[in-house]
Design goal:
263 residues, 38% helix, six-stranded antiparallel beta sheet
């Protein structure tokens, strides 16, 4: 019986303690809710509004997590218009420099350059070409091309042009086929081993496609000569003619050092 009473007392005590605990818990909980949900004072409301306006006016931070994860634009892509402009400017500058260099060439220097290139152009001897025709040239046992002496100077490859008759004429023709621009050389009366009382004389002429290109006027005496420098551009056939004004045996006419400048 005593045990039952003790157990009952203990149960009542425990229930009382539980009830007190629940009362305290709910009391505290209701107080917190009332504090949070209770109406705010005018000062607190003003502070909240000011904080919201400050947050709205503040610009977003450039260093956000999302922005940091985005790769920066490629320098080449970002500077494409500028790079293109620079490339165009560089190209235009190169063209201007080239034009300036071309325009800065002195015309006199250009002419001098042309003259130099012409002088340096490999020349060919007319005697290297095969004659197309030879008329009334006295050769005997000698060759048309031979070594001669003119006023004491030896020319190893000269064209012999002694007429076969007294006061006669002779001619030698060569095909050029428009391949040359100038013909230079010497028209002369060669030196004689033994000179007599008679004086050789003659006139040398050069024809191109039937037109007179050069005339030596009258040459008289052994060793006399005249230089020739003829424009032969566009000429197909050149003819060398000598007209004698003396007996054939003393008319030692020759064309020496004949050279062709190719185009």
């Amino acid at each position: 019986m005593i045990a039952v009473v003790v157990i009952a007392v203990l149960c009542v005590g425990m229930l009382a303690m539980v009830g007190l605990g629940l009362f305290w818990y709910f009391s505290v909980h209701d107080t917190e809710v009332q504090v949070v949900e209770g109406p705010a004072t005018d000062q607190e409301a003003a502070e909240v509004l000011a904080e919201e306006e400050r947050l709205e006016q503040q610009p977003p931070s450039p260093l956000t997590a999302e922005s940091e994860s985005v790769e920066p634009a490629s320098p080449e892509v970002a500077s494409t218009p500028e790079t293109s402009d620079l490339a165009d400017a560089a190209l235009a500058s190169d063209i201007d420099e080239t034009l300036d260099e071309r325009d800065s060439i002195d015309p006199e220097d250009a002419e001098g350059s042309d003259a130099t290139s012409l002088a340096e152009t490999p020349q060919k001897r007319l005697t290297d070409l095969k004659p197309l025709e030879t008329l009334d040239v006295s050769l005997g046992d000698a060759q048309l091309v031979r070594s001669v002496q003119i006023d004491g100077q030896v020319y190893s490859a000269a064209l012999w042009a002694q007429p076969t008759t007294n006061l006669g004429s002779c001619q030698i023709s060569f095909p050029l086929q428009k391949a040359y621009q100038r013909l230079t050389g010497l028209a002369a009366i060669a030196d004689a081993d033994q000179e007599g009382s008679a004086v050789p004389a003659g006139i040398f002429r050069v024809y191109g496609d039937g037109n007179l290109l050069w005339d030596s006027d009258l040459l008289e005496g052994y060793g006399s000569s005249r230089r020739l420098d003829i424009d032969i551009q566009g000429i197909r056939l050149v003819v060398l003619v000598v007209e004698s004004h003396s007996p054939s045996d003393i008319s030692l006419f020759t064309w020496a050092d004949l050279r062709l400048a190719p185009i």
